[in-house]
Specification:
The chain has a 4-stranded parallel beta sheet with strand order 1-2-3-4, with helices on one face. The chain is built from 3 helices and 4 strands, in the order E-H-E-E-H-E-H. By secondary structure, the protein is mainly alpha-helical.
């Protein structure tokens, strides 16, 4: 909420997990006790460019027990004598005021801290992702094995079908041969019977001729 002409924090929503709050370049002059109620876990608060004039206005920030860094750049309060000493004395939980500690050591770059947080988050995410990748590889290998097995099974089915088809064809050919042989035998028997009939006929004729004599 930067540069939005904000005058009061009375309507600030509950942000219990919020750690950094930017309220710079507004018109806030007091009422900071709301921050302890709505944002109790703040570690960084930027009130630069607001209308804060007196040290007493910061007294409510004593209830922000986790507050480590406070920025009041371009507020009238910064022109007061012994401003820094008085703020550090009142807010003993803070380490940095306007980017420096009590010994004028500069605060670490907040951007670098954010980068570290992002790196930690990426490492946390990398763990399950890596494990998931290994599981995927194992699943792919199992799928390849299943596919190879199914292909082999299909090949066996094709071989089996071909073998059965050849067997059926061979059986049909054998049946045809058997039928042909049976027909030939029947024809031979018929011929033999015909010959025997003709022989009996001739014998009968010969017997008749003898009787006539």
């Amino acid at each position: 909420m930067v540069n939005v002409e904000l005058c009061s924090l009375a309507r600030l929503p509950n942000l219990s997990k919020l750690r950094k709050l930017e309220l710079s370049n507004n018109r806030i002059s007091g009422g900071l006790e709301v921050l302890a109620e709505k944002c109790p876990n703040l570690t960084y608060l930027n009130l630069s460019g607001n209308k804060i004039k007196a040290i007493s206005a910061l007294e409510a920030l004593q209830n922000l027990k986790n507050l480590k860094s406070l920025d009041l750049f371009n507020c009238e309060i910064t022109t007061l004598e012994d401003y820094r000493e008085n703020v550090f004395e009142m807010l003993q939980q803070i380490t940095y005021l306007d980017g420096f500690d009590q010994e004028d050591n500069e605060a670490p770059d907040s951007g670098a801290e954010d980068d570290e947080d992002e790196d930690d988050q990426e490492e946390d995410e990398a763990g399950p992702t890596e494990g998931y990748g290994e599981e995927e590889e194992e699943e792919e290998e199992e799928e390849d094995e299943d596919e190879a097995g199914s292909e082999l099974g299909e090949g066996e089915e094709e071989v089996g079908l071909s073998y059965l088809m050849r067997e059926e064809i061979q059986d049909e050919e054998d049946d045809d041969d058997y039928v042909e042989e049976g027909e030939e035998e029947e024809e031979e028997e018929e011929e033999e019977e015909g010959l025997r009939g003709e022989k009996r006929k001739r014998d009968a004729e010969d017997d008749g001729e003898e009787e006539d004599d």
